[in-house]
Design goal:
Shape: elongated
CATH topology of one domain: Rossmann fold
CATH architecture of one domain: 3-Layer(aba) Sandwich
Radius of gyration: 30 Å
Number of helices: 20
Largest sheet: 9 strands, mixed
CATH superfamily of one domain: Response regulator
Structural class: alpha/beta
Helix content: 25-40%
Amino acid sequence: MTECHSSLRGSFVFPPIFITFEAKEIKSFRLKHIIGYSVVIQFFLLFSLPALSQFEPADVVRSQERTMINGKIYYIHTVQKGQTFYSICKAYGVTQEDVRRANPEIDPAYLKEGLAIRIPESKPKVAAAYPENREDFYAHTVKKGQTVYSLSKKYNVSEEVIYHYNPWAREGIQADQTLWIPRKKEMMDLTETARANDLFFYYSVKEKDTLFAIARVYGVEVADIIDANPELKDGLKPGNVLKIPRISPASQDLTDNTDSIAGSEPCQISGEPVTHNVALMLPFFAEFSMEEAALPADTLTEEGTYVPAQKQEGLRGRNFAEFYEGFMLALDSLKSTGYSVTLHVKDTERDTLKVKKIVKELSIEQPDLIIGPVYSEAVSITGRLARYQEVNLVSPLSTRHQLVNSNPNVFQVIPSRQAEGIALANYLRSYKKGRLILIRSTDSTSMSNSWQFKKYLLGSMPTDSLGKPLYFKDYRLNDSLLTVLTKVLSKDDNNLIIVFSDSEADVSRLVSRLYTMALLYPVKLFGMPSWQTWKTIDVNYLHSLELFLITPFFTDYSSPAVKRFLLRSREAYGYEPYEISTLGYNFCMLGYDIGFYFLSALRQYGKNFQQCLDQVEANQLLTRYHFVKSGAGGFVNSSFVLIQYKKDFSVEKVATLDGEPVY
């Protein structure tokens, strides 16, 4: 039994290790207080002992980073300690002479750790052979300047025939590649009947397809598809034509299933016990002492986890320690049902170099699911591995859409601000009377978000019982507005005031003014998620005005599930999580919800659970996720909660809203 003790109250250093947790033996450890929770774990050193490194050569992991220089593709390999010029060339399948020509400035005998080397992409090997009938084809080696069109004329075949037997050629051909050109006329017949005699099925890749899903439909292994399609080294792309080996030509006809692989797999819960491999990447900053300087003011704001500057001293990594604790409680709950997980915990800090090293480890460990990292730059780096290995990555805090739009394997848990405005507009469309008054701050964020809201709302305005659009007007939040507010509001109709502002000072003045006018002017006030953490606004005003707030997350402390969670937290860690972020979540509860939801999805439907998201059975504390596909990219949560401050000083959930546009 190995014990890990550390505290965030004093100085501490975490040993540079990654930790593998066996779910059947998990006991969580604390990073916030002095902890002594035992962890039955396997420990693997990230850095080998100096003595051992003298005798064991370092492994070379092929880089996934590529660039194009003068029309040629190169891998960018960063030299690691113990690697040699020979071992690097061998790993990439290129000659030492090729690498020397690409890097004339380096000395192969003296490679320094951290040196970046250009590795030319190895020449394509002979195209996948057609076993048993190679004699029916010409094996043509492409020469410089040749095109598919010129070859079609040379061999008197159509271009489509060449593409049919060499689907990778649609992406372009290069010198030294091998094309298979059929000799027999009957092989040039591309009708469905004729294709039945081929040794391969031919499948055109659609959006959302995965190699795993395609392999299941055709009853082959993923490795069989990769072997038959060398071009997959560049990833699976919509429009690619894959050769699927006909393992059993006499088997049932599968060609009717090729309209779309995505969604063709039934969402059936697997009853077979299985141990999944999961990576958890969080910035614990475990190697930093508590005496270090406070984080820059914008460090956490970017990811929606803002902590006031005066409280940042000594908080490095604390929030994510609490996230980890909640995650471990979720894992413990699933463990009690017989689920087994091998968990690899990685401390990313906010260091892209460290993240890249972790990604190299993960490329070997091949997790079934990655949760984290947190910061956008780290998500971008890790996302490339997730896409390459077709493993889902959960981004817990980032709200940057570009991270999701181009990567079908990324899940974004925090909804976007644009979706927030759409969800609120969808709710306001249910009103059949009243005056809609939009008030916005003058900062760029508020202006942009309010403009998106206004554009969407005006596209389908709420109407009264006669079909007439409701009154709508928008104003800027400033001192001039406060002086003329009596002229803006109506004494006869409900004033539905929607405020887009995260400025506590500006909103405080507006709320105070509305409070004094409430007896004469009927008001329904709608505010933003950040308001729920403000301290300078008199809470009596909010309850008196019966404020409505839209928020992605809401903690209902009257809920039996939340009460049970608080009890478990007190028993396991000696405290109850209570701090709420500007988006309505507590880090410990957020860690629990993300862990319970995605581990349940992994357990129930396997690593390719994307098509079964609406059927995942997982009780959550803060909200019920609703993931929406982002074009050809990944998935974004679009679920919001509308809460209301009541006159009896309670706060209640009014409705669950969806930030998906409805036209």
